[in-house]
Design brief:
globular, 232 residues, single chain, eight-stranded parallel barrel, cytoplasm, alpha/beta, CutC-like_dom_sf, 8 strands
């Protein structure tokens, strides 16, 4: 099996440094972790991107009300993307849906244009789509979208093994990777990877002190997780 990519949420510069030092392969940089992630400040993005040698992917999400964005939201999003493009960050993390629960293609294309070749992860907005497989099919048409962060349409990825395995098969042969996240635990990751075939996993709370979202990253928990993943 190819090596599994471990993406870790970072919310502060210190967390980004800790994650990189203790086994993360990539950072998802956010603020508002208890809201599912919001756009961090430009200052933090610049500092984080300069501080570590691993890729830093940046959340672009102006609020947590929904993944449906109006014209004012889109102006903010596009301006954030243009500025993030200048920071040295690796990629943006974005997702948008129509009120009817489909991928908002005009919004997506507007953001991809602003990203100007920068890679994108389409985030867990897909889990609120009416049909996750139809949504994935839309995303597969865009080469800039290299990753889809998903829990397979369920609150915890651990409960969506069949769905995630189907998404992995759907993306097979493309340059798009399925990044499984939400609810993953170190003691379940081996069987989860075996059952789903995912090659990328995303951890937030479970690598923090006492597994609490608002606690700092626990180096010991992260090192243990990394050792488990290396053994796969």
């Amino acid at each position: 099996m190819n090596s599994i990519v471990l993406e870790v949420i970072g919310t502060t510069l210190q967390e980004v440094k800790t994650a990189a030092q203790h086994g993360a392969d990539r950072i998802e940089l956010i603020t508002g972790i208890t809201e599912g992630g919001l756009t961090p400040s430009i200052g933090l993005i610049e500092e984080a991107s300069a501080a570590v040698d691993i890729p830093v992917n940046v959340m672009v999400r102006p609020h947590s009300r929904s993944f449906v964005y109006d014209a004012d939201d889109m102006r903010t999003i596009v301006e954030d993307v243009r500025r993030i493009r200048q920071t040295g960050a690796n990629a943006i993390v974005f997702g948008a849906l129509t009120p009817g629960g489909k991928v908002d293609v005009p919004a997506l294309e507007h953001v991809l244009e602003a990203a100007d070749g920068m890679q994108m992860t389409f985030h867990r907005a897909i889990d609120e789509a009416n049909d996750i497989y139809e949504a994935l099919d839309v995303l597969l048409a865009y080469p800039q979208i290299t990753t889809v962060l998903t829990s397979g349409g369920k609150p915890s990825a651990l409960d969506a093994r069949a769905e995630l395995a189907a998404m992995v098969r759907q993306a097979e042969g493309s340059k798009l990777a399925i990044l499984a996240g939400s609810g993953l635990k170190q003691d379940a990751v081996s069987s989860f990877v075996r059952d789903t075939g995912v090659q990328q996993v995303h951890f937030g709370s479970n690598v923090r002190v006492n597994g609490q979202a608002l606690s700092p990253i626990d180096p010991g928990r992260l090192r243990t997780l990394k050792a488990t993943i290396r053994s796969l």
